[in-house]
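ok so i was messing around last nite and threw this chain in just to see what happens. nothing serious, just curious
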Amino acid sequence: MEKPEVEHLSNDEKSDAPRVVDKFPPEARAEAGVLLEVERAEGTSLRLAEDGHTVLLPQPTDNPSDPLNWSSRKKHLILLVAAWAALTSDFTSAAGSAPVILQAAEWHTSPNSVNHNNSINVLMM
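result:
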């Protein structure tokens, strides 16, 4: 179902249309709350970035538990821990697949039955 107020182009018209994107107009930036003049921001409760022009979206609260108020060191440490956990879980889930034949010989069973444990581990990732 097409909207009556929207102009639709055919495939021929689309290929001839210029693919240039205009710069974002400054008026739209100020109205959208992305950038704000310093004079216009004074007297408001909006928090600005260190450059003094960029409005912080979302606005941080005064709560020290707010992640937007955490130090850069704490944010990077949490990122490192999350990345390390993701890496080690992938590594350890597949670590048992290399010695499948040796495990089968040790336990006097087929490599197929030994591989079931690894398959279930990878399935649960």
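not much to say yet. The CA atoms of residues 104 and 114 lie 6 Å apart.
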